[in-house]
Amino acid sequence: MGTPAASSRLDASRMIFGGDFRATNLDLLLASLIALGLPFATSWLYTATGGATASLILYYIVCCVIVVLWRKRTLDYQRPARWPWLLLGLSLLLPLANAALNWGTLPNAHAPLWGLLVTALVWAPMNAALEQLSWFYVFDAWRNRWRTGNRRWVGLIAGALLLVTLVALIHIFFWAKFLPVTTNAPLGLLTPILNLILTASYGALYYTSRSMWPVFIIHYLVDLQLVLIGHYSIVPYL
């Protein structure tokens, strides 16, 4: 059996939280490049290569996994410090709101069953597990650069603006190239508002639970309803 001290160290290691990492000027540079450059880089790669594979490698593997592991030392898929059940329950209303907006307004892609299943069971959970890692790295890099004084607030505001910028631009310049988009303009105007609320809920879940697992649950349901309602397969676009 391990000693109490060893058990205590093990418990502490399990609670390592990437949101607390000590950012440097290098992180400010990397976060700014990701927020302002990644959407255009993925868009260019999609056009240049005729598919999304190279863009997804840059996005998921380089920016969401390699950079975040290098700088934060964790992807934050540890057991939550506590499950924010009320917040999680309220957040479950957001995929339902997405589904209500998309129902009858998304074009039917008529994907074969195997393509739909690959998208629902491989791409959707992969995207839900990885995408927001880069989002919160961008925010935390600026939020954590300065811990006191007025610069702390400057960093917090800059990080929040860059996070929202990244989320907006990656959807406009990359995802909109091949993911299904609603054809109903009046309802479609609500989509940016709902996406902003979703991003805020992801952040609240992440920083409250100190884990990506609650975020993954909501994000996966958001992606899944898009796939199922649109009868969509990502396979032809890879």
Radius of gyration: 19 Å
Shape: globular
Number of contiguous helices: 10
Number of β-strand runs: 0
User: Distance N terminus to C terminus?
Assistant: 50 Å
Strand content: under 5%
What does this structure look like?
The chain has one domain. It starts with a helix and ends in an 8-residue tail after the last helix. The radius of gyration is 19 Å and the shape is globular. It is mainly alpha-helical and 238 residues long. Helix 2 packs antiparallel against helix 3 and helix 3 runs parallel beside helix 6 (113-143). Helices cover 72% and strands 0% of the residues. It has 10 helices and no strands.
Layout of helices and strands, plus pairs?
Elements: H1 4-14, H2 25-49, H3 53-72, H4 85-91, H5 93-102, H6 113-143, H7 149-173, H8 185-188, H9 190-209, H10 213-230
List its salient traits.
238 residues; mainly alpha
Task: Characterize this entry briefly.
Helices cover 72% and strands 0% of the residues. It has 238 residues and is an all-alpha fold. It has one domain.
